[in-house]
Amino acid sequence: MTSRKVLGLTGSIGMGKSTVAGMFRELGVPVFDADAAVHALQGPGGALLAAIESEFPGTTGPLGVDRQKLGAAVFGDPGKLARLERIVHPAVGAMRGDFLRENAGAPLIVFDVPLLYEKGGQAGLDAVAVVSAPAAQQRQRVLARPGMTSEKFEQILALQVPDAEKRARADFVIDTGGSLEATRDQVAGIVRTLTRAE
After folding, report:
1. What's 1-30+108-198's CATH class?
2. Which residues, 6 or more positions from 23, have their beta carbon under 8 angstroms from its beta carbon?
3. Do 181 and 171 touch, CB atoms closer than 8 A?
4. Nearest to residue 133, comparing CAs of 24, 11, 33?
5. What is the pLDDT at residue 26?
6. Is the pLDDT of residue 8 over 90?
7. pTM of the model
8. Residue 112, phi then psi, degrees to nearest 5
9. pLDDT tens sequence across 12-29
10. Residue 65 backbone zone (phi > 0: left; psi -120 to 50: alpha; other: beta)
11. Could you tell me where in the chain the CATH 3.40.50.300 domains are found?
12. What confidence tier does 118 reach under pLDDT thresholds 50, 70, 90?
């Protein structure tokens, strides 16, 4: 019986989750990036292109899925979004299974899942860490992104479980409102806690 732990890592937009995932990697912890998996499946030559094109004609091309066209095809239509998810989720699940097997000897594995609470992704996890920062800092970070507007930011927030609820449900809260060093210390502390011999 393995004592390996699986930690879910999540957080709302602009909270610093990608930075924190990088910190886990620096400490030698394998990180499965759900977004990167989706990009690989939908990118040039991606395994899901034929299925997506068949279901949503005109949304793919030589560069893979045209995210704007696919977004326009499913946005605001729960039925179409569900059809897309039925194509994407099993494939991501299979990649996650492969990742677990490839890293079978690791004492700790991190699943980086942006919409963990929104999509019910807690199954099979030993703990969840939520990356969080003060709302004003979050807003400042997000609005600094190219092409981002206040309206877009509000729309994205409306689709995500509120930060306060995520914090309340999490086993660990990683506060990225301070220095990078302070954040690194928090990450190292979680790794120590989860890899201690029981």
Report:
1. alpha beta
2. 183, 184, 187
3. no
4. 11
5. 97
6. yes
7. 0.86
8. -90, 105
9. 999 999 999 999 999 999
10. beta
11. 1-30+108-198
12. confident
